[in-house]
Amino acid sequence: MESITSRTNPLITRIRKLTGDRKYRRREGVMVCEGPKMLAEALRWGAGLETILWQTGTHPPAGIPQGVRQVEVPGDLLRSVAPTETPQQVLFLARLPARALPEELTGSRYLVLDGLQDPGNLGTLWRTADAFGADGLLLLPGCADPWSPKTLRATMGACFRLPVWEGKLEDLLPRLARAGLPLYATALGEDTQDIRTLPLGRAAVVIGSEGRGVSPAVLAASEKTLQIPMTERCESLNAAAAGTVVLWQMGFGPVG
């Protein structure tokens, strides 16, 4: 176990940059996570751990893989580098998984996010997609960074279990076609169908951005638009809430 006390130590400087700089995270291929629960999930699901920072006096659990760098730091130093104001005794670095769209989509239920910009909504939908048995999230351009600390916290460990891929619409469409998966969008249009009436057991469903909804290009590429029934006095749902309804319907709604 190493010990670091300086705020200018190269590792501390690197963690600060990883926490705040999206491009640097991508270039380094590393994400910053925090807390014993997240670490337990990372260990359980075989995440590629690189470095663990322990607050002085914390007793590491058994099962840390050999080769993982472990560093003890004072509480004030951990607080200075952690992405939250009250860190939970441990912070760790893990390698990013593959992010590019796979050549073949082998699952049957995908949630497509189109310009979803709030990291909390993204993380919540990631966690919900995992809970309801989706096969992955497909992120189109303009979405929040799935590997930001705020997004990762909101996943509650789902980031280690359910894949998230990023790609352009023109690359996604042929993959959906080869897999025989229709693309549906949550939006109002001439062909809008009540979400309860359409089998979603094999489909990719789009949730649009919080402010603009589904983009025109994605709407044009979608086979149908879906409507979530609600009282007349309510105009719309939060993106995370709408996505939760969609994911439940995909996992537990009619199959045919």
TrEMBL record:
Endpoints of the signal sequence: none
Entry keyword Transferase: yes
UniProtKB keywords: Methyltransferase, Transferase
Coiled-coil segments: none
Annotated Gene3D superfamilies: 3.30.1330.30, 3.40.1280.10
Gene Ontology molecular function, alphabetical: RNA binding; RNA methyltransferase activity
Keyword Methyltransferase: yes
Residues annotated as domain tRNA/rRNA methyltransferase SpoU type: 110-248
Organism superkingdom: Bacteria
Protein family per UniProt: Belongs to the class IV-like SAM-binding methyltransferase superfamily. RNA methyltransferase TrmH family.
Name recorded for this polypeptide: RNA methyltransferase
Species for this entry: Evtepia gabavorous
